[in-house]
Design brief:
This is L-threonine 3-dehydrogenase. One of its GO terms (biological process) is L-threonine catabolic process. With about 325 residues, the protein is α/β, with parallel strands linked by helices. It is about 45% helix and about 15% strand. The model has no long low-confidence stretch (mean pLDDT about 95). Bound molecules: 2-amino-3-ketobutyric acid (AKB). The site of 2-amino-3-ketobutyric acid (AKB) has 13 residues, from loops.
């Protein structure tokens, strides 16, 4: 029987992943953790074990793992790209020392460790179109620096200590349950809320800026599928390129217009997030993930937009 600890369980990915894992493995076998309780997340906090612990508190975290006899850690607690540029010091501390603590616990307690990387692990010198799995990684954001360093650290723990580390490079994630916190791709979530609430959206990302994106159900499937993958088939581990779609702001606006004909979009570009977006790939090549563990996303832009608008309408009414 699996016993899974999810850090950052009240965040954008964690809140949905925890509930899905509880359905699969049983409520008591999935321990949600966060550094504090958050309003609006009662479902996650109350439907199974919940531990208040900061990923920087290594000893407390190790005790949680021992207490619940955890064998799998899904480590999601992290500072994202835009906030990371405002507070690089904090981004380095949480993203690196948090991961280090998790890997040390993984080594001592023999746990499988999943941690996400990101398209942010690439930079302006990376090939921008169909970015290969193995290529130049010289990011120019603190978030990106921590993601590349994290990938290498996870590889190190696998090679040196045999810790079963696995990861994916997530693109921008779009969901209707929990808002993302402080990323560059967040515009692609906000646009749906504003379309329904106000019939218009002001984009902080410039027209013509392509980035990879994915709908949350595919992201959750990716984590679960990779966790369950046969280790003998994994040539890569930290971390796999995965993508479901690549679009510019005009594309998502045009798709929304099919459902809300009066919808209008204009631009008030944020130079910091625009520069970050321009340093990231336009589209990833995810062949390795497809070949090594069967990655195959279900949602494209049209299908995602239909579902997002339907679910958000219910939520906002
Ligand atoms: C961000 O925009 O920072 C994140 C990411 C792509 O990792 N959504």
């Amino acid at each position: 029987m699996k016993k899974i600890l999810v850090t950052g369980a009240l965040g954008q990915i964690g809140s949905e992943l925890t509930m899905e894992l509880r359905k699969m493995y049983g409520d008591n076998n999935v321990i949600a953790s966060s550094r504090r309780k958050k309003e609006g997340q009662e479902e996650v906090i109350e439907s199974g074990p919940f531990e208040v612990v900061d990923v920087l508190e290594g000893e407390k975290l190790a005790n949680v793992v021992k207490k619940h006899k955890v064998d799998t850690i899904i480590h999601l607690a992290a500072i994202l790209s835009a906030v990371g540029e405002e507070r690089p010091n904090q981004a380095w501390n949480i993203n690196m020392n948090g991961l280090y603590n998790i890997l040390e616990i993984g080594r001592e307690e023999n746990c499988l460790v999943f941690t996400p990387s990101s398209i942010a692990a690439f930079g302006p010198s990376t090939p921008q179109d169909k970015t290969p799995q193995d290529t130049i990684q010289r990011p120019e954001t603190m978030y990106g620096v921590t993601k590349v360093a994290g990938e290498i650290l996870c590889d190190y723990y696998f090679k040196k200590f045999g810790v079963d580390t696995r990861g994916v490079r997530f693109p921008g994630l779009i969901s209707h349950k929990t808002l993302p916190g402080g990323g560059t791709t967040d515009y692609a979530v906000h646009i749906y809320y504003d379309a329904l609430k106000h019939g218009r959206y002001t984009s902080f990302i410039k027209e013509g800026t392509y980035m990879d994106m994915m709908y949350m159900p595919d992201a959750i499937d990716a984590i679960i599928q990779l966790m369950q993958a046969d280790p003998d088939k994994l040539i890569h581990r930290n971390a796999f390129n995965i993508t479901a779609m690549s679009f510019e702001p005009e594309d998502i606006a045009a798709e929304i217009k099919k459902h809300i004909p009066e919808f209008e979009m204009d631009y008030d570009v944020d130079p910091v997030r625009q520069a970050i977006a321009e340093s990231w790939p336009n589209s990833l090549d995810d062949t390795a993930a497809r070949e090594e563990w069967g990655w195959n996303p279900k949602y494209d832009l049209a299908k995602m937009t239909e579902d997002m608008l339907e679910k958000l309408k219910l939520k906002l009414n």
